[in-house]
């Protein structure tokens, strides 16, 4: 536990400070470094001096990645998905990758220590590029992670995406990734009737262009058994994170009304974002 807090203190310093020196990373990034070696000037930026620091919460398959990525492009802030950081580690061969694969492919959570180190390393890259702000997707996933993050930096807003559970399973099973361009698609055609007061929902498939069709892959943890386990783990470990932010007045609940064409404009409206205004700003 003490190690995790030390990493988060470093993480905080890295994000808010000018870096005076850089140390080589060890297996998980910053293990082994101590605060003194960084010789950093600690300065927490207020919200007026930096870009937004937002979090997307929600069950597996809800679309955190899709909406976080769209918002990050629109708002010009980095989209940081801890699931992607984990998959990058998995793609490396070696003992740490096979240890991770064993955890992820069973639908379990990676240890706080590993995930905090991966996130620290990613935020460090952003800080070195002079980027401020982020849209976090997939972190925090436990109240312990939320507490660690809270000690390190201020979170402005947490968007909790919601979708009925039968849809979540179908969306995970329909997910496809192009092994060449990395594009995310979904072959599931969702057309669910109203059920026990839950409104009917329609989501068209998000089909790949012809150039990607022969290169589609499925995530190893997107099998029915593993998705069900991920949903169980979400209810047990991540639901309390919603309450953590609700009690701090930071949680925005958003029920997805359908696919991207219906949900995106409604999400922007809920966030009070004028798409054209941001597009003009980015183009200027
Ligand atoms: P999901 O579709 O379940 O939201 P992600 O792509 O966010 O999946 O994450 C994939 C896997 O990576 C998770 O099932 C978990 O094993 C690991 N992971 C990602 N983020 C975290 C985290 N914050 N804490 C622990 N494990 C994580």
TrEMBL record:
Catalytic activity: AMP + ATP = 2 ADP
Enzyme class: transferase
Alphabetically ordered keywords of this record: Kinase, Nucleotide-binding, Transferase
InterPro entries attached to this UniProt entry: Adenyl_kin_sub (IPR006259), Adenylat/UMP-CMP_kin (IPR000850), Adenylat_kinase_CS (IPR033690), P-loop_NTPase (IPR027417)
CDD domains given in the database record: ADK
EC number(s) on file: 2.7.4.3
Family in the record: Belongs to the adenylate kinase family.
UniProt xrefs under HAMAP family: Adenylate_kinase_Adk
Protein's name according to its UniProt entry: adenylate kinase
Organism: Araucaria cunninghamii
Organism placement in taxonomy: Eukaryota, Viridiplantae, Streptophyta, Embryophyta, Tracheophyta
């Amino acid at each position: 536990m003490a190690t995790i807090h030390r990493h988060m203190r470093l993480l905080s310093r890295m994000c808010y400070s000018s870096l005076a020196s850089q140390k080589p990373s060890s297996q998980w990034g910053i293990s082994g470094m101590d605060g003194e070696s960084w010789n950093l000037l600690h300065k927490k930026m207020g919200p007026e001096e930096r870009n937004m620091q937002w979090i997307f919460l929600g069950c597996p398959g809800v679309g955190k990645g899709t909406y976080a990525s769209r918002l990050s492009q629109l708002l010009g802030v980095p989209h940081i998905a801890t699931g992607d950081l984990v998959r990058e580690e998995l793609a490396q061969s070696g003992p740490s990758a096979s240890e991770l694969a064993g955890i992820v492919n069973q639908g379990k959570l990676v240890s706080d220590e590993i995930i905090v180190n991966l996130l620290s390393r990613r935020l460090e890259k952003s800080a070195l590029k002079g980027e401020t702000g982020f849209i976090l997707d997939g972190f925090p996933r436990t109240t312990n992670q939320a507490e660690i993050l809270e000690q390190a930096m201020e979170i402005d807003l947490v968007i909790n995406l919601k979708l009925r559970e039968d849809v979540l399973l179908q969306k995970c099973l329909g997910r496809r990734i192009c092994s060449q361009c990395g594009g995310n698609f979904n072959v599931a055609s969702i057309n669910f009737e109203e059920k026990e007061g839950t409104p009917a929902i329609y989501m068209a498939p998000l089909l790949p262009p012809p150039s990607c069709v022969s290169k589609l892959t499925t995530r190893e943890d997107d099998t029915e058994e593993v998705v069900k386990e991920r949903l169980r783990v979400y209810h047990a470990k991540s639901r309390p994170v919603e309450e953590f932010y609700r009690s701090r007045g930071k949680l925005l609940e958003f029920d997805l009304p359908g696919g991207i064409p219906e949900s995106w404009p409604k999400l922007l409206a809920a966030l009070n974002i004028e798409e054209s205004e941001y597009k003009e700003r980015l183009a200027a």
